[in-house]
Amino acid sequence: MDVTTRETALSSPRSRPSALTLPVVLAGVVLVAMSISGTAVALPGVGQDLGASGSALNWVVAGYNLAFAAMTLVAGSAADRVGRRRTFLVSALVFSCGFLVTAVSQSIVVTDVSRIVSGAGGAGVMAAGGAILASSYEGVARNRAFALMGTMAGVGIAVGPTLSGLLISATGWRGSFVVFTVVGLLITTGATRIRESRSASGRADWPGSILFVTALTLFMFALLEAPSLGWTHGAVVATAVGGLVTLVVFAATQRRSAAPVLDPALIANRGFLGWSLATLTTSVGFLGVLVFLPTYLQAADLTPAASGAAMLLLTGPVLVTPLVAAVLVDKGVPAQKLISLALGLVTVGNLWLVTLSSQHTVVAVAGPLLAIGVGMGASFGITDGQAMALVPADSVGMAAGFLNTLRGAAEAMVIAAFGAALLGLLGSRLGDEEQAASVSAGQLSDASRHTELAALTWSWRMTQLGISPLCLLLSITAVVLIRHHGSRRKTV
């Protein structure tokens, strides 16, 4: 039985939203999605310009995703309590400022910090944007809004590598960050026209928020630094254990908090949890390829623009499949069957990438990228709408935050783990950690180019052998939870 909770009179879910609500939110979503996919194309240029490689360079992307993952849940809960429009507006401004600092940065440390700031802003844009849509629309209108949100996320991911590649070729990597800054400020201005809404509770769980951010940060540090320090290094072990302990304490505090940042009842909802795991699975299967394949393609002699264009094989399907999936659900096709198909495609595509080759690279990756892209796009189109329909109206911000936290956490962890695996495997293959760091950043030497490229290809194949079974396990779990919830509803 669905539960609805009364919101404050400031804005009712049934009131007509501002005409700018949907366009502004969708613009924010597409910009944040572009920033996730486009930055990967800039990594080789950033590394060469700032003299960075290894974990320091990986933090340009991983730091953004860490902040995105850690702050999305916090931003979603804050949006419910302090105002969804206010959270969206401030977040868009923070996002833009982070990009501006990145564009003028002269050191990898400043770049990494500014990327973390942008990630925190992007988290608020996505979480508050989803909460705004959930509180502004109902029924078919809500499904359509979330399908469009998924489509725009797909558009951002699709055009991100290509647009960034073109911008980098024309103006350098700094110019691409300036463009993001300008567009972000325009979205900030547009957000002032959205109507405000918030839940009845005005309290915030600051201890819980701090514990959650701390736990995720400790886990990320351990994953990123382990390849260079060693998996048994005291700092790595202590950080990982500290993250686990902090996460346990966070879970305990949420059960006692009067206004938890993550309500335990949300996790106990098996249907919502199943759809959440589905979005986690597609993120796991999508992000490692999205972030690291452009570097491999450039190592295989493609230009930044050409590698960005090749990534359309992965991101192009995400342009159309979200709306196609949503339309199919509206016409009576069971959402459970569609998500099962989507998860299967993502899993098969990742396993298929074991055939990656430096010869005729684009042809070799075409099939796997299309499979992963179609699966990811279908998930975008239905996951959020199906999940949000299972939560109370007062908790839409928290639910949106949790969904995007899972996506962000998966992205951050996959990037960290994928990068660590590539670096570790390259180090064992080449026998030189410094050389492995340079090769993983796409910086191959002329003298040993053939050997280094062969080692990079082998490391990619081995990494995919680890990602594929993980996607399969998560897919099975998600489908079981979703079907269990569906069968229970039929018997009620």
Helix fraction, binned, reads over 70%
| Nearest-integer average pLDDT | 81
The Cα radius of gyration reads 21 Å
The CATH class of the largest domain, by name, is Mainly Alpha
CATH architecture of the largest domain: Up-down Bundle
Q: Can you tell me the CATH superfamily of the largest domain?
A: MFS general substrate transporter like domains
Class per helix and strand makeup: mainly alpha
How do the strands and helices of this protein lay out in sequence?
Elements: H1 21-50, H2 54-82, H3 84-104, H4 108-136, H5 139-171, H6 173-191, H7 206-229, H8 234-256, H9 264-268, H10 270-299, H11 304-310, H12 312-315, H13 321-330, H14 335-352, H15 361-388, H16 396-430, H17 433-440, H18 449-491
Helix pairs in contact: 1-2, 1-4, 1-5, 1-6, 1-10, 2-3, 2-4, 2-7, 2-16, 3-4, 3-6, 4-5, 4-16, 5-6, 5-11, 5-13, 5-15, 7-8, 7-16, 10-11, 10-14, 10-15, 10-16, 10-18, 13-15, 14-15, 14-18, 16-17, 16-18
Q: Can you characterise this structure?
A:
This protein has 492 residues and is an all-alpha fold. It contains 18 helices and no strands. It folds into 2 domains: 21-194 and 261-491, Growth Hormone, Chain: A (Up-down Bundle), CATH 1.20.1250.20; 205-260. Helices cover 80% and strands 0% of the residues. Mean pLDDT is 81; it is low at 1-14.
Which properties best describe this structure?
single chain, about 500 residues, mainly alpha, Growth Hormone, Chain: A, 18 helices, globular, disordered N terminus
